[in-house]
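Dear all,

This email documents one entry for the complex benchmark we are building for the journal club exercise. For each entry we list the sequence lines for every component of the assembly. Then comes the predicted three-dimensional structure of the complex as a token string, followed by one or two observations. Please use this as the template for your own entries, and keep the labels exactly as they appear.
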Amino acid sequence: MKNMKFYGVGGQGVVTATKVMSSAVSLYEDKYAITVPAYGHERRGAPVYSDIIMDDKPITLNCFVYHPDVVIVMDETVVDKNVNIGAGCAEHTILVLNTGSREKAESLACQFGFKEVYYADATHIAVEYIGRNIPNGPILGVLAKTGIVSIESIETALIDFFGEKAGEKNAKSARAAYEKTAKM
Amino acid sequence: MAHYKMLDGNTACVEAIKMAKVKVVSAYPITPQSTIAEKLSEEVESGALDAGYIRVESEHTAMSCAVGAQLTGVRTATATASVGLALMHEVLNVASGCRVPIVMPVVNRSLASPWSLWCDHQDSIAERDSGWLQLYCENVQDIYDTMLMAYRIAENPEVLTPIMVCLDGFFLSHSMQKVLLPEQAEVDEFIGEYTVNNLKLDPEDPMVIDNLIGSDEITEMKYQQAIGFEKAHDVMLEVFEEFYQKFGRRKALVEGYRTEDAEAVVVTLGSMSGTAKYVVDQLHEQGHKVGAVKVVSFRPFPAKELRELLSGIKKVAVIDRTTGFGGEGAPMWVETKAALSDEYLVKGYIAGLAGRDIHTGTIEQVFRDILASDQAGEKPVWIDCNTEHAMNIREVNKYV
């Protein structure tokens, strides 16, 4: 079983990212993944999170993720809004980060104790490929680089979710992010 | 061929409603609604669902329209949640009293006050005596399957009783899960065409229904409804078996998980049931003989099946996702207690109100407590609750 926690701010498509990721795993990799979304009084710009539980067999567990194996941060400013992205993390927990800056990745890894970080500027890539600063497609490309899901499954799931036209752009943005991802 | 799709609980309801070919949808599309009403309107707009859509001005009217429409001889659909269900209360009793077998998904969400968006079972449990059957779902596949079976159960001429298919708000309504969907032809074969029984509204052949009835008749009519619930029990068993034969997934009125040789079990309702199974597996690895029991049908309550399942298990912990204010226990505890003799230790726990997570730690805590208990106590245990300082929250300190 792998548990994932996605952090971001309202308007970034955090819940959509988890929906696409769970589809990629469930429909194209013969595994199982459920989303456990945390809906609240969110507004654009406020911190949000959403969880995924993933396994090789059908999942019975249905509660929030308290001990993530992968933490995905779509906007690092959530840290300044009192969100503890290191909550419940273990030695092996991987950080997937939306930043192009190695310094930023290093400082967050150090602050929250992550040993392994995958990062790329997903927002910049989204603007470049989709024309909007919504990084949910590209961040899934970065996530694919960890090996938890294949980039092909992510591409297919994005096209399936957003439809042919918008999906193609999203899939390209995910592939670009996958190729630009740096590991630390 | 059946095929896999990723659906959330709301969409699973919509898929089932669509495949049941309802002819009228009446819904009130404002909070606390779910996306069920919204997605149904899209299906009608696109022509994928050949139905009339009535956008009404309240849930009271949503149910009134559903009752009226179904009495003309077609399947209808509506959906609601939380205070929306509460506003339907009067007409729920009309639907059941007129024996109109409406199938309605209820997204379980807390009742005000204070206002909440999130999951608990206050809303549907408060409608316990409204004359509706109530089935609770564990996961999204279960929602889809239960919806299909619900048409067969409610519409059976011996039952003719409306049914709520209850799905936990957010934990199921908004959780994306992999669902195996059958083909339309298979669903057609399983559900069949709707045929109106007993009461019918037809301008060509007028009939007065739901009029003022004297005391002489009402008790007998209520007794007939009670018989409908008894029949529903047997019809459910038949429908579950037929569904299993056709689709390969088994359902029961109450389901046991690793109950053989269990020293203690936890009795659950809804989405927490899956988490309970997960915890049972983990505790088995640590050498604890524990099991889980999921109540699927709250109305009719399967007392006989529960008694058989719990036979010989001395300690029974019941988790209610509702308050049961002022009672010796909350509603699920009351039912469980009534089903068992005094030899059983049946202890009540209250958890998961207004979306408070029932996580692995919650269930573990319940197991730890029941395994260490030798008596039930005089009132339910509010697990995961800061009972020591609870009053601080409500103290008004503006003028202090």
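Observations: DSSP finds 13 helices and 16 strands in chain B. The CA atoms of residues 70 and 76 of chain B lie 6 Å apart.
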